[in-house]
């Protein structure tokens, strides 16, 4: 029992990384417990359970199947760059309610890990295609339309997400979102923190540059209660 507690403590400690700490990796190979850092280790601890990144959530084949279904529709649209009041710069988007077998399997898995059973979901899945020069400015999703949980798959590119506490801007978290990972944001992390995807020239995590290529996110949300 003691041993278990010691091991648990160690894991706990290691995962509470402050973003200002020295990078422990060369190259962009982070373990799952190193994908979230923050203004302080204490903040990372406090938001544990509300912020999650799972690497390799989908396989290369599944990413290919998603792209095959999404690309024809996306390609018909143009990236939008100059909507001054938009939260997103350099994007095109779509919604999708029906999927082929492989993609439906991915969606089932996503729903099973991110949402509690019976939690009513926003019908169609949101697909956001960010150009290489695209980025998402700080914003909080409308509380009128979306509930407490947001879960997103990242396709085609690694990226860095930043969460900044709305009423305390010194408090922030950064998430390294590897290609083919899933992130889940819940509760405070979703309601109290603005969320952004950093533009290419600001895209750094733990002192390392994370080049931002074209990135597609597939996002599921639940409904407000
Ligand atoms: C959004 C959003 C996050 C993402 O589309 O409003 O916050 O992962 N997206 O693309
Ligand atoms: Mn949003």
UniProtKB/TrEMBL annotation:
InterPro entries: AlkB-like_sf, ALKBH7-like
GO biological process, one term: fatty acid metabolic process
The protein's required cofactors: Fe(2+)
A GO cellular-component term linked to this record: mitochondrial matrix
Annotated coiled-coil segments of the chain: none
Official protein name in the record: AlkB homolog 7
Species the sequence originates in: Oncorhynchus tshawytscha (Chinook salmon)
Gene designation: ALKBH7
């Amino acid at each position: 029992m003691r041993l278990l507690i010691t091991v648990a403590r160690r894991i706990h400690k290691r995962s509470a990384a402050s973003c200002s700490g020295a990078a422990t990796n060369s190259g962009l190979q982070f373990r799952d417990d190193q994908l979230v850092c923050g203004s302080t280790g204490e903040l990372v601890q406090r938001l544990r359970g509300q912020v999650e990144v799972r690497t390799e959530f989908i396989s290369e084949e599944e990413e290919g199947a998603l792209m095959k279904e999404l690309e024809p529709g996306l390609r018909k649209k143009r990236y939008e760059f100059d909507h001054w009041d938009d939260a997103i710069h350099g994007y095109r988007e779509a919604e999708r309610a029906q999927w082929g077998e492989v993609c439906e399997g991915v969606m089932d898995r996503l729903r099973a890990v991110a949402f509690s059973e019976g939690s009513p979901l926003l019908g169609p899945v949101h697909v956001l295609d960010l150009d290489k020069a695209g980025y998402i400015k700080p914003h909080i999703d409308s509380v009128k339309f979306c509930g407490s949980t947001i879960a997103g798959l990242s396709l085609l590119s690694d990226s860095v997400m930043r969460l900044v506490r709305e009423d305390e801007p010194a408090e922030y978290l950064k998430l390294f979102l590897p290609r083919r990972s899933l992130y889940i944001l819940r509760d405070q992390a979703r309601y109290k923190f603005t969320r952004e995807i950093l533009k290419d020239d600001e895209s750094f995590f733990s002192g390392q540059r994370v080049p931002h290529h074209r990135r597609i996110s597939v996002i599921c949300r639940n409904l407000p209660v």
